[in-house]
Predict the 3D structure of the following.
Amino acid sequence: MTINQLTNKIQIQHNRELATFRQDITSPPYQAGTATALNTARRSVRMNPVNSVEDGNANLTIVADVQGLAWFTADKGLLGSCITLSIAGHRRNTGTRLALPLAECDAWIEAILGGSWITHVYRSGTAAAPDGKLDVASYRLFLDERSNPVAKPKSVVDDSLRRLELS
């Protein structure tokens, strides 16, 4: 299946869960306060385990950490936040870890964040194994102080980040 086909299948099968998860991770990271509160706020959001769309024996756990940019840089005055999305696979019958196809992970990220934000997403960590699978897939999306997606700030030093390119 292509990434677009996978994304469409995920959106059809998990529409309600995706909408709730997206709302939880994209809502402002604080209720009221100063720019300092925005910059240092931190929260984690977990999606209930979902079925893999490519492996009938796998469940996926998807977790998002939403953090102020102060967690990533020495520039404590830099306003905005970062959403880190992590996807891990587990065998449905035993719960043991399971390597995931990179294409399915990318499709989940596109289904969660949507088309207009996907162009700002970075894949984090080591590249996929030669078979195209990952133990844990991690992605980052940087947001400005108004929660608009932006390129990775120059002061965020992380050589493992690569712009996500969907084909």
About this structure: Strands lie at 42-51, 58-68, 81-91, 97-98, 100-101, 121-124, 133-134, 136-143, 149-150, 162-163.
